[in-house]
Amino acid sequence: MCLAVPMEIKSISNNVAQVEVGGVANEVRLELIDEEPKVGDFVIVHAGFALRRLDREEGLETIKLFEEGLNLELT
Amino acid sequence: MSQKLLLDYGSGGKASQRLISGMFLKYLGNDRLNRLDDAAFLELSGPISMSTDTFTVDPLFFPGGDIGSLAVHGTVNDVAMLGARPRFITCGLILEEGLDMDVLERIIASVGRAARNAGVEVVTGDTKVVPRGAADKIFINTTGVGEIFVTPGPSGHSAKPGDAILISGTMGDHGLTILSKREGLSFDAPVESDSAALNHLIVRLLQEIPEIHVLRDPTRGGLATTLSEIALQSNVECFIREKDIPVREAVAGGCSFLGLDPLYLANEGKFICILPEKFADKALEIMRSDVLATNAQQIGEVRKDHPGKVVLETPIGGHRLLDMLEGAQLPRIC
Amino acid sequence: MNSLEQKLKDPKLCRSIVGRINEELDGELRFMEVCGTHTVSIFQSGVRSLLPDGIIHLSGPGCPVCVTHEREVAAFLDLAERKDVIVATFGDLMRVPGPNKRNLKAAQAEGARIKVVYSPFDAVNLAKEHPGDKVVFLGVGFETTAPTIAATIKIAQEAGVNNFLVLSFHKLVPPVMKVLVEDPELAVNAFMLPGHVCMVSGLEPYRFLADKHGIPAVVTGFEPVDILRSILTFIRMRNKGEAAVTNGYVRAVADGGNPKAQAIMNEVFEPCDALFRGMGSIPAAGLGIREAYGDFDAIRALGLTLPDVPPLAGCKCGDVLRGKIRPDECPLFKKVCTPANPVGPCMVSTEGSCAAYYKYQI
């Protein structure tokens, strides 16, 4: 269950963030997110609430390492 | 404050007459309609394509169109898909008592504009006004006829293994636009309905390409449902590649958080064209030269392996069934 | 399109992982996911069709619609008939069949006031717009969804909205997984843990899978690379004779989860026994509204009870949810039970494993 998608924060006011995905704008509430998000952050949104910040650098790094590992084994 | 529509306007009396001459003839008038006889006198010859559709849409006005233009485009496109030149359409209105006269006038003006652009005449019509609550603002029925000029004309039964499957542009624009304006679900999407009359482009294609097997417009149920219908009617497999199906970023974005699939969203200005592979490039060239089909693409081909089914190749190279939709898609959270 | 999103769907990378899976797989591996979004991702992305025959994919009790018990469905269908009530719900519940094939769609056609909302917060606005009615939000879902509803109840309280109620049928994932792994007939070698549930709850509640039962489990994201990578991890752990609970979705999940969301959830809800479709009552597997928020509890405020209803005849959803049979092994599948005429909830939910089999399997 639990369809949740990353959306980019465009602005924040009063515990509500304006977010965007593919140019589609929506509003999400920030009551539940555990670290203060900033404009430009990607947050994972479920049922109108941001639940966590998406760590994109971490995501890229993990895949890079994994991919390198795979290639090492293949050679 | 705008004047409201009263039940009297549908009575057939003087109020009806005022509506007819003040609004309908003003925006829709032509030699045939202006005679105001009980029926329209038409001169048609040869095989005829005929289609009827009833339009209900909420909201009535949306980015890229309104219920009036939609009612013309929908029927004109259906008539054209059989290989016909649409000539005449009818316009039947069911109106809810209390409708703003301004709203009605905007819609009728839009019907007139859309008909002129499509090159069809509104030749007969009807108006009923029902008590408040018995209908939702306005329902429009249009029936269209056109002369078929190619034999055999394209049909959903004629797809053959080896044929190429083309679509005329991006999928889901109309469906997502309407959803984005729905009460309780509003979000801002930089996308417009693709509602448009396709008949001029269709006529050109049929004149320049010697053999077209299928033409269909993927309206309700979207590309997935329409291709499933064709696969069943022709008893063939429609094999398509997801990476080749054009979908606007905004449509994909809106679908992502609502849990919807763009391949099931309605289109109102796009068509599927299935034809022998050797004519695919020429057809794409013609389509792309028209502003209504600049994003035309070949998305797959007709096969015989899984008759009656649509098989989708996913971007990672997996394969799955693309089934017909069961009821309307609902936004979901899980 | 930026590179992270591209990488997570990269066909070349997917092919390399599938290559490794084929090389390293020794014997049959039966893995179960307990998340409807995984069910859909695995079918929709085509991952399933790329897996070798030795990898058996099972869908467990991870679709909130599928696990909602027939007595709970009967309760909200009864509720929808009340004249003073507007039901607000996620779209997911609209077609769930209850006793006598009733569902919310049919109730709506008969005049019940039912509103599909995208966020529970929208239901509070609905309550403000209808001060003379009671707006009851149907609270279903697991640890991902429950905090959003807890937060909404707190917002309603602060705003003094007193005609907003929640019918809480929320469920918790770890207790039902405990029931699964304690079943002596269980035939699952590895668990794919629900990424977004773990985003809230963290990894701790799942450690018992490896520590006590020796079953590897990986918290998994929803992109093809995430899913394939977890399958490769299962194989590697098994080949080494190891079992651990690991985090394969670090970009979204912290090992400790989201403490703030946990706190709000725990402030509003307390664990209670819960009914699961096909599995019966499971201790402490549900979330009820605490007394401090009793004014927002539809059960207390409206005096609701769960009606007794007979189970659906012939429906094997319970066995499907426990991974005992595949959907196509149910005698009703595609014959009596279809998406147009679903017998059980696994066929009606978009995320149900039976619906996924019907819809995506060539």
Automatic annotation (TrEMBL), chain A:
GO process terms (BP): protein maturation
GO MF terms held by the record: carbon dioxide binding; iron ion binding
Alphabetical list of Pfam families matching this protein: HupF_HypC
Domain of life according to the entry: Bacteria
SUPFAM superfamilies found in the cross-reference section: HupF/HypC-like
Family listed: Belongs to the HupF/HypC family.
Protein name per Swiss-Prot or TrEMBL: Hydrogenase assembly protein HupF
Species, as recorded: Desulfoplanes formicivorans
UniProtKB/TrEMBL annotation, chain B:
Domain PurM-like N-terminal span(s) in chain numbering: 37-148
Domain annotation PurM-like C-terminal: ranges: 160-311
CDD domains, A to Z: HypE (cd02197)
GO biological process: protein maturation
Pfam family, one: AIRS_C
Domain of life of the organism encoding this protein: Bacteria
Gene3D superfamilies per record: PurM-like C-terminal domain, PurM-like, N-terminal domain
NCBIfam families (UniProt xref): hypE
Family: Belongs to the HypE family.
Listed name of the protein: Hydrogenase expression/formation protein HypE
Native source species: Desulfoplanes formicivorans
From TrEMBL, chain C:
Pfam families registered for this protein in UniProt: HypD
InterPro entries: Hyd_form_HypD, HypD_1, HypD_2_sf
Molecular function GO labels: 4 iron, 4 sulfur cluster binding; carbon monoxide binding; iron ion binding
Keywords (A to Z) from UniProt: Iron, Metal-binding
Keyword Lipid biosynthesis assigned: no
Taxonomic superkingdom: Bacteria
Listed GO biological process terms: protein maturation
PANTHER family: HYDROGENASE MATURATION FACTOR HYPD (PTHR30149:SF0), HYDROGENASE PROTEIN ASSEMBLY PROTEIN HYPD (PTHR30149)
Family: Belongs to the HypD family.
Name of the molecule in the record: Hydrogenase formation protein HypD
Natural source organism: Desulfoplanes formicivorans
